Amino acid sequence: MGPLLALGSALAYGIADFGGGLLARRAHFAVVALLGQAGGLLATLAAAPLWPDRSPTATDLAWGALSGVGTGLAMAFLFRGLGRGAMSVVVPVSAVSGVALPVLTGVALLGDRPSLPAWGGIAVTVPALWLVSRNGRGGGRGTGGAAPHDPAATTDALLAGVGIAVQYLALAQAAPEAGVWPVAAGRAAAVVVVAPLALAGRARRSWAPLTWPLAAGAAATGVTAAGALVLYSLAVQQQLAVVAIVLSSLYPAVPVLLGLTALHERVTVLQATGLTGAAAAITLLALG
């Protein structure tokens, strides 16, 4: 059950990133991130009292808040990168650092000991994600033709990966008895982190006109991303954190595939190889 929950987390995160990336091309990236985290906060606050296990300690909430700091920074940098770069590059590159750092930390500091098949899946995942990102000339800036990829967007993606690593590692430390409250604490912390960026954009008058459909869409991406974190927190209770992190970090396959079908991005041989490697990683990690 643990691998399925982690894969469900990857699917939800991939959908949220795809939607958020499109919105970040039509509105200020920090506004999209702020509305998304606010939507996730409201959703988790509504769901938390209904959760069967809901006895969070101050430590659980602190880990959740630290996770939210990582989430806020990750979403801000990710959406900025998506606003000026190709989706098929930015999302996978953010995942490379987002999966590598937690895995190394889990093995070196947390005592995780993956099985041999799981090690094989871990070994395959990072190069697979790197190969998926090798489409720097592809499209994705809009609904059709190709557009150049801004190299600064790759830097944004790497910084987003650091935030993703903090998010996963911190949330994995919360006790199962805490229920959804650590995720709710994280959404509150993420709002606090992202709000100054949104206010700074407003002060510079760099906000694009924000319509109600855009605002609702941004909030919906946050609700979906919060759901992804809930699935991840459930998955990490049933298996090694390393395995849950790696499986959850396969989410770049979703925006890449949606980019191919919905945005008519072009897939390269290297990208196809990377997607095949991601499928192999899923199989190996599920066996582990």
From TrEMBL:
Transmembrane segments: 6-24, 31-51, 63-82, 89-110, 153-174, 180-200, 212-234, 240-260, 267-287
Keywords linked to the UniProt accession: Membrane, Transmembrane, Transmembrane helix
Keyword Coiled coil: no
Listed SUPFAM superfamilies: Multidrug resistance efflux transporter EmrE
InterPro entries found in the cross-reference section: EmrE-like
Protein's recorded name: EamA family transporter
Organism encoding this protein: Streptomyces johnsoniae
Species lineage: Bacteria, Bacillati, Actinomycetota, Actinomycetes, Kitasatosporales
